[in-house]
Write a structure and sequence with these properties.
The protein is an alpha+beta fold. The chain is built from 22 helices and 8 strands. α6 crosses α18. It is elongated and about 90 Å long. The two termini are about 45 Å apart.
Length: about 500
């Protein structure tokens, strides 16, 4: 009797998501912890499970995922649920007979008579993608049926934008292809055991891929314009205003729209879209809101790719033709020693004031220091070429794995896309408005257009600023001045992510 009481207490600790009742035969009842839908069942009656093995995955109405795991070893005597079944709180899911030692006998093969040809053809048809779509639509959930087809078309759209429109092709092509792979019926490529699942778990859940990308971006970045004109640091900070505005907007949307339930960490992850920095958005959402990572990544990279379409109207609306014609003075030469000291100085400030941002800032500054020191050219070449591009492939596929229909097709995704656009527009606008103010207060002329480069879309935002400036004045080359604000924006978005991580 004491042993049974001990096992009940042990199971109550190890299986916190379930309510357990120890029967006289040593079995326990597994019940639902909440109102939810069964997404995946990984076991069948008679299966043996071990401590830590996943039994089933549930999804609540607000999108929260609950994973049920075995807290001890034993044999499942009953499994009373099927995938995509709706369950209620405290509803019986199954039962398990606990055992300190599991004795498992491998099944012996036996000769069977060849089934009729009609049965073989029927079984063959049940392995096709067509059957998977029909069965999902009729017997499971529309996101497993027609939803998969819709998401495959979304993947094709991303491929079109990357290949034919050249919008961020290095990321949109693998993301689009990953979206197609993750929605192939019955293939399970993005499910446990599939290659996209492991790519996501190894590189994105751990945060490794975004950090390596950040190191590569650092090796491609020149801090010279920012050092020559330190005022641009303010522009990079102003552009981050959209992050915190959108955070509040996400919380307000949750209160106003039924079916949208963003928590504070969800809202923070959505807000970072306003920084227009894909790796930072992925890193932060993987830490704060993994369930929304696919939607957030798509929004971040889509708006980065659409910088040439989104920013010019905002820039022209907030500035006069005379302001757009302003020519800025040539910047001073920046010495090599200044460029070497800067990454160490920034890292020191980060370590002192905001250690939570150290992963992003540290990898970014490592890449830049390798570039500027001039003694590790082979390492620098590896960081900014083969290493970064290899990781970019897997990062894109990992993000694409989160674009499966059951995860992506919901009202919250539309909310994220709308909030992402708001965040990006606010970030652009605040940068331009601060640059206008600085122009009025500064002795040296400042073209307000460079404020739009305060978002982190490097170097596309700076190129757009230069293009709009040349349209107003063919002799007005703003690219280097805009790069100062652009680089500041990268640091600003990393700092904002660090602040959110520290607070949440």
């Amino acid at each position: 009797m004491k042993i049974k009481i001990f096992m009940a207490v042990l199971l109550g600790v190890l299986l916190p998501w379930t309510s357990l009742a120890l029967a006289d035969d040593g079995s326990v009842a597994i019940v639902s912890p909440a109102e939810a839908k069964i997404i995946r069942v990984l076991v069948q009656p008679g299966d043996f499970v071990y401590s830590g093995d996943e039994i089933a995955t549930l999804k609540t109405e607000n999108g929260e995922k609950i994973i049920l795991k075995a807290g001890t070893s034993g044999q499942l005597t009953t499994v009373a649920v099927t995938p995509y079944q709706k369950i209620h709180k405290d509803e019986l899911l199954g039962s398990m007979k606990i055992s300190p030692i599991v004795v498992e006998k491998p099944a012996l093969g036996s000769d069977k008579a060849l089934p009729p040809m009609s049965e073989l053809l029927t079984n063959l048809f049940k392995t096709t993608g067509i059957y998977g779509i029909i069965d999902g639509q009729m017997n499971k959930d529309w996101t497993i049926g027609i939803g998969r087809i819709l998401m495959i078309f979304v993947g094709l759209l991303l491929l079109y934008l990357g290949i034919f429109r050249k919008f961020e092709p290095l990321l949109l092509v693998p993301i689009g292809f990953g979206a197609i792979l993750s929605n192939i019926p019955m293939a399970g490529i993005a499910e446990p055991g599939g290659i996209l699942y492991y790519i996501y778990e190894v590189g994105i859940t751990t945060g490794v891929f975004p950090l390596i990308i950040f190191m590569g971006v650092g090796a491609l970045t020149d801090f010279g314009p920012m050092i020559a004109n330190p005022k641009t640091i303010l522009l990079g900070g102003a552009a981050q205003f959209g992050i915190f505005t959108t955070l509040l907007g996400a919380l307000a949307l949750s209160d106003l729209v039924p079916g949208i339930n963003f928590s504070l960490p969800d809202a923070a992850a959505i807000g970072i879209i306003g920084g227009a920095d894909g790796p930072t958005a992925i890193f932060l959402s993987s830490q704060l809101s993994p369930r929304l990572l696919g939607s957030i990544a798509i929004a971040a990279y889509s708006y980065m790719a659409l910088v040439p379409l989104i920013q010019p109207p905002i820039m022209k609306w907030l500035t006069t033709p005379e302001e757009r014609k302003i020519k800025m003075v040539q910047m001073r030469h920046v010495s090599k020693i200044e460029k070497i000291i800067l990454p160490l100085l920034v890292l020191g400030i980060c370590a002192t004031l905001l250690p939570s941002a150290a992963p992003l800032i540290g990898m970014f500054m490592l890449g830049n220091l390798a570039k500027e020191c001039g003694v590790v050219d082979r390492l620098t070449d590896t960081i900014k070429n083969s290493l970064m591009y290899t990781v970019t492939i897997f990062l894109g596929l990992g993000v694409g794995s989160k674009l499966s229909a059951d995860k992506f097709l919901n009202l919250e995704t539309l909310g994220i896309l709308a909030l992402g656009m708001v965040a990006f527009c606010i970030g652009t606008a605040t940068g331009v408005l601060l640059a206008k103010l600085m122009n009025k207060m500064s002795k040296a002329p400042i073209n307000p257009l460079i404020g739009a480069a305060g978002v982190s879309a490097v170097p596309m935002a700076a190129r757009v600023v230069n293009k709009v400036g040349l349209e107003a004045n063919p002799q007005n080359h703003l690219i280097m001045h805009a790069m100062g604000a652009n680089v500041s924006g990268v640091i600003g978005s990393a700092v904002a992510a660090g602040v959110l991580l520290a607070l949440l």
